Amino acid sequence: MATDVRNVEEKLDENLLAVLPKGGQVVSVSPSGMSDYVNTYRIEVSMPDGSTLVFFEKEGSGQEGVELMESAFTSETTTYEFIPEHVPRPIAKGTYKSRPDVHFFVAEFFEMIDDDIPRPDSYMSAVAALHMRSMGKSPNGKFGFAVNTRFGNLEQDNSWTDTWEEFWTRQMNDFLEREDAAHEGEYHAELERLRPLFFDKVLPRYLRPLESDGRSVTPCLLHADLWPGNVKYKEDGETVCVYDACAMWGHNEVDLGVFRNPRYPLGKPYLKEYWKQVPISEPEEDVDSRNTLYMLRNQILLSTLYPQDPKLREIVVSNMRLLVEKVEAEELEAANRNMAPIQAHL
């Protein structure tokens, strides 16, 4: 157990000190980063041999705090299992002895370069390593995760599912319902028109072929929130640090949706780098449309988290419309082809 030797009135909680290195002395605690949903801290510990160890702590309260810490600990522990060179080592989760309504998660602290988005080769080497090393290692061969994880403070239903189409359809339905609730039932005529078409036409068109005609989706571990705020260079400027996962076992291409999002300065160079290392799923000709489909997850969740920004909802509608129109154009083309032989004999 560590001791808190700072000259301050409020020392670190006993249960938190118990997960820090034995014999260590806490010499500094300072805020670390920004979060809308939890408090975060950098904890510096001086060791008897003269070395210094640094740890990162998240802290949340109430039942939401329990679930946020469970999401963080389980996501980071599972991700660390496959790419330990890129993920800060998780230490523990727990509850304060002095304040039983406050809960924490602790991991090693990596010093990172905040203002530099990693190059495509550095960024995507970590993503590809996570996917390839975990491919086929879902604990039960299914899609889902051991716990429900969080995107921001939004719970993600990770109930185990046998097929990828079933899993993704359930999540999209859940996310869109919560997006609607976040907008307090505000009626959006175009979204209401597109929603049934999205479920009846778009999802079967782009998900079902992945698991038809002898093809299948092998679950791999997804980070599921790979925006640039969660991928930074370590101090060496070469190796990337990947953190704040809201993990699940699913189709590897889900993690690529964020790279298409114009909200982030990533785009095609990052996708091209990934495809150098990981094969495109069959049918390959659908990959661009699947990329748009998976991008929608991130955009729907952002519209849910920030309903006061109407542009975010319009982006969802625009991309949903794009996919619906693409499928309807294919249907029209197929109908015209079928009619051509009939007309030729009239």
Automatic annotation (TrEMBL):
GO MF annotation list: kinase activity; protein-ribulosamine 3-kinase activity
EC number in record: 2.7.1.172
Catalyzed reaction equations: N(6)-D-ribulosyl-L-lysyl-[protein] + ATP = N(6)-(3-O-phospho-D-ribulosyl)-L-lysyl-[protein] + ADP + H(+)
Record bears the keyword Transferase: yes
Alphabetized Gene3D superfamilies for the sequence: 3.90.1200.10
Pfam families noted in UniProt: Fructosamin_kin (PF03881)
Keyword vocabulary terms for this entry: Kinase, Transferase
Matching PANTHER family: FRUCTOSAMINE 3 KINASE-RELATED PROTEIN, PROTEIN-RIBULOSAMINE 3-KINASE
Name of this chain's protein: protein-ribulosamine 3-kinase
Species in which this protein is naturally found: Podospora fimiseda
